[in-house]
Amino acid sequence: MERREEEQKDEEEKAEKIALWLKKIFGDQPIPKYEVNQRTTDILYHLSECNKARDRDVSLVIEDLKQKAREYESEAKYLQDLLMESVNLSFTSLSSIGSSYLNALVDSALVLETKDTSLASFIPAVNSLAADLFRAKARNEEMEFELSKLGKNLTATLILEKCLREDLKKAELHLSMEKAKVDSRISNIDFLKAKSDDLRLRIKAAEEQLSARGMDASLSHQSLMALSEKLAELKQQTAPLKKKLESYLDLMPNPSLAQVKIEEAKRELNSVDAELTKKVDMMELLPDQSKRRFT
């Protein structure tokens, strides 16, 4: 019971804080109506707390800036008084050129983020800026080199891609041609297979007809092929015997046949000798006849 009363009390406090926060936010404008329940109450309470925390942070920042502004004003007044006392010089007495130089000096200090406009502050800031510039230039050169390298690689890649595309086109063309050849060969094979089946059927029918007419089985194609193979085998077997027989044929003939051959050779030699003698005699007679004509 007590716990429930505490929860109810917390809800009432949240509702009061939410109402005050909404009134502060909207001011004189009417607050929009909303459904009051546990969820909306929690959301609005969380938003009010966040808004209050942000307002506190903003107030602290504003107070800090005001404090710094007062310090800067005090320091500026001190410097102006110092200039007036030492060299009798004030900001209002500067010429337009002097004012522009002073403004440029202040702007440079702001850009370089120095604590003051003294030379001891400017030199390290300028050196740091020069170092940053040098690093930026070096980085820029590296990036340009990498960019040039990437450009060359890109060019080579594009050339390679072009070559690969051309090779792919050639391969596709060659593949289509080979496919056409394969299709043609397949159709030829199918045709030859059908033709072979047809011829086989015709041969079988012819063999059946010949067998019906009483043809000897030894005259069939298969029998003739078997006989041909057997004949070739016999020829191979008789080849060594023929070579052996040829060696016997090269031997000397018998004496009686040799005597007959000798007699035939003698008769042929005598005939040739007689013919030669006859021609010699005729040649001797020709000069004698020519001498008689001239005398």
UniProtKB/TrEMBL annotation:
Keywords: Cell cycle, Cell division, Coiled coil, Cytoplasm, Cytoskeleton, Microtubule, Mitosis
GO BP, sorted A to Z: cell division; centrosome cycle; spindle assembly
Keyword Transmembrane: no
Predominant cellular place of this UniProt entry's protein: cytoplasm
Protein localization: Cytoplasm, Cytoskeleton, Spindle
Keyword Cytoplasm in record: yes
Domain of life where this protein originates: Eukaryota
Cellular component terms per the entry's GO annotation: centrosome; cytosol; HAUS complex; mitotic spindle microtubule
Entry similarity comment: Belongs to the HAUS1 family.
This protein's name: HAUS augmin like complex subunit 1
Native species: Vombatus ursinus (Common wombat)
Lineage of producing organism: Eukaryota, Metazoa, Chordata, Craniata, Vertebrata
Underlying gene: HAUS1
